[in-house]
């Protein structure tokens, strides 16, 4: 092991070894000795390496479980390497199988002018590995138009890059036909395991790099967290359920891909994401349970409202009298997530119910429960102290 002087916290030492010293031995030692540090940095460690480290370290991280197609709430790993002008890092990631279209890395080439005198080799590298020259960078923002790499190069005044792109068939977004735009957007999301995080991060705020995971997870589903400090709430959402196509009736093909979401107070978020505090994480465990059951059964979640409960109607967790769940198809347009040629992902919001509310729902239908909802109201988030709508 290299003999170096590390005097800061393990977290600070890790980033010093990663970004300043490129010390792979020390990176390995810190991650082995301090598992909490590894949990804290999560998948975003690879993004930091792409920005500031070396191909050897990128390769080691990829070989040890870090996802080369990870999106950190701002950019993908490859886009970060491109944006920072790291040609060798970008080449390494592409050799390892990074998607040349995910998050539109070609769009980031113009921004690399801050870090490199000549951005054209970066563009050529991406094109050599199959990047779509007219791929749209989708903003998911009505105030900010979608752009192609050419739009971005012209916007930033990188004339030599604009000329290179034009010579290879690049167009502005406004010059693309509707068919071209649809096909290039499809490329961006087909098979993307983090399409939900990317969409919600662009729509709301960065998604926490760490996530709740299952010790044994044949479905590969995680529960991610998006915080709203001003409101004092967090959005929990599953990621991975939509990798499993669900069985739907004829005419309901738009509901083949689904994810779950649930709002909870920030006080219910386990800061270390261990999932070991049952009073805080029972909502997370139920999200896993419902998502896993949905994958195993293959049944769709409907086009309106449905319910989920154990036969015994036991409390969902410690400190609560809720015993069942209502799953409601979200009507928020931000929760209809483009999924490339597969269509879209629909999100279903979870609401905990008391036994009496659940029985009313089962016996008389959602309409009967909705009458109570209209008069009293149902919080958007888990409120363990809310009044029972039936008793």
UniProtKB/TrEMBL annotation:
Pfam families assigned to the protein according to its UniProt record, in alphabetical order: Ank_2 (PF12796), SUFU (PF05076)
Top-rank taxon, per record: Bacteria
Domain Suppressor of fused-like, residue spans: 226-387
Protein source organism: Novipirellula aureliae
The protein, known as: Suppressor of fused protein (SUFU)
Gene3D superfamilies: Ankyrin repeat-containing domain
